[in-house]
Amino acid sequence: MLRGSCREAASSKVSLSDRQSALESPILSTARRFVGEEPGHIAYSVGPVTRPGNRLKGRDRQPGKTPTPKGPQFDRIDVATATLVGCGSLILFVATLCPTIYVEDSPEFSTAAAVLGLPHPPGYPLHTLLSALFVHAVPFGDFGYRSNLFSAICGALALALLWVFLRRLHLGRSTALTATFCLALGTTFWSQCLAAEVHTLNCLLLVSALLLVFEAAKRPTPTSFALSGMALGLLVGHRNLNVVFAAPLVFLLEAARRRVQGRARLLVTLAGAAAMTGLIYLYLPLTARRDPPLDMGAPSTLQRFYTVVSAQPYFRHFATAPAAVNWNRLGRFLEHLPATLGIGALAAPVGFVVWRRRGDSWPPLCFASIAISCIGFSSLYNVIDVDSYFLPATLALAVLAAFGVEVVRGRLRLALPLVALASLPLHFASVDLHGVTIAHTYGRDLFQSAPKGAALISFGDTTTHVLWYEQAVEHLRPDVTVVSFDEIADWYVDQLARRHPDVVWPVADVEPQWLSDFVERNSEKRTICLTQPLDLGLPGWQVLPEGLLFCLRRSLDVSELATSVKFWEHAVVPSAAGLVHSDVHVQMIAFSYAASRFALARAFSVVGDFEEARTHLRAVVAADPDRFERAIAEAMQTIGRVRHSAFDFGRRASQALLVDPRNRDAIVSLLRP
Length: 673
Description:
Elements (H helix, E strand, L loop, with lengths): L1 H22 L2 H9 L41 H20 L10 H10 L9 H13 L5 H26 L4 H12 L2 H6 L6 H20 L3 H17 L4 H15 L5 H15 L5 H8 L11 H8 L13 H19 L2 H13 L5 H19 L10 H16 L4 H11 L1 H9 L6 H12 L5 E4 L2 H12 L8 E4 L5 H10 L11 H12 L5 E3 L11 E5 L2 E5 L4 H11 L15 H24 L2 H14 L1 H13 L11 H10 L5 H7 L3
Parallel strand pairs: 1-2, 1-3
Antiparallel strand pairs: 3-5, 4-5
Helix pairs in contact: 3-6, 4-5, 4-6, 4-22, 5-6, 6-7, 6-9, 7-18, 7-19, 9-10, 9-11, 10-11, 10-12, 11-17, 15-17, 16-17, 16-18, 17-18, 21-22, 25-26, 26-27, 26-28, 27-29
């Protein structure tokens, strides 16, 4: 009788479930099947589902051990969805892609790909080889655009693989979509997909390593360990900093290796595959011997090779700022996390707790380790454009956020991908680069300003890199000798002496002294021009404007100012109102235009041509350079550099326009450097 009652109760429950399913709308039923959730069932399980307070203990909780999962399997729908995620994100990135070279390191990486050269340490051989293969295969756009497109494709592939990885963790489809959208539409990841940079390839390598390592931890075989070793080797070989992120993944593999027979063979396979990827660094000395137009570090000797691979020139940026500056950098990352990860910023801590309660704490600890180590390093790395260095942490937090999103049940979980998509219109204007050509224009204007056969001394990464690109790739002005003031070292002076034997090159020394020696030895043969109005303190020399440049002259000649007037008939000073993009390096370029035109107005006021001076002052006022200067000053404060005086070009130009033109002394005093 008791058995009969149990059967009746069971049949009544089944019939009730059937009735609920029958009453469900076809749309909702289809959506449930898409997200991998049938009514009344959990959509995933990475381990035994435990109740709060009933966690696995003792020998049942083994490091790296992932119990046989229960839940939806990876099927054709997942393959199709991964393809749609990759293609959809690529369409978005291409729609907002920079049409040519961008600022900072973008022109350098575009140049390296175009001429098969060597960018700055650690040399990035994998990125250079892959991007070079791509840009020479694509038949449209300039090399800057093709390099940008390569970054976009790497970003789209990283997102598609992230979707696959989350599904392999047996998370629901809507959960995987939400986490992927949160990362894709965040300002940091999206912006790095729009210009030539190494960070999207880094994300692609990191996601690939995560996917292969977790698969190898589930099924430890020689093949899976070999693939994991290659992925980890390429990850570390791409950027040596990635060794910090690879360490917890190696620990997971070691824990999995201890559970099977043939442990030594797996270890040898893993180490051998990782070591084999190190052969890619042979590209550095082999390329240096070829002496390409871009050869940073010239790693043709063992000592220089070690200096490049270890990235020693950049050690000066690490942990050199005051503690308050580092804490402020960490605070800004946390403050901007909602913009870089959307709702994932709230879900990530929840996901860490949820994942641990599933019975295996090592995978969530692995991602927490990646996030914490990346945040710690990036907070101590004292550079302006540090946001991109936080990307591995953002990716790790996106994975944790997926588990936080998974706790949401019912129809609300179906709506979460749409909530994540809300970041698209919110961030579109701030990251869109489809019409930004200021870096390309800047490089051409610099060369147009240079006298024939000039020696052009450049300051700052953006200025130097755009000059290198325009000369090495676009073949502009081969008669001009470009000298990067920031790269003065033995290897660089040797390289310049080899390429320009007609110039007298002082031995590498303290930078200001080296520059003074260079001017004294070559000023009679060549015109020396600077990209910034630097006072060298040389008696008998004046720094006078010539287009965008500042050239050393013995005296002020009105006829030479006519060259600058002709230049400004076609060149336009970028205005604050016309620059919708907030990148500080873009604003530095705009400020350089205003500074050059302000210097020209000052020169005309000195010779007494106040009408011409007022023409240029009005152009300076219209550009609103003080707004650029404030933004630059705020950016410099983030690395502990505070200016105690301001140029105030806009304010001083406005005041000079109000002065009676007959009051020569007052105007000259206002425009004084």
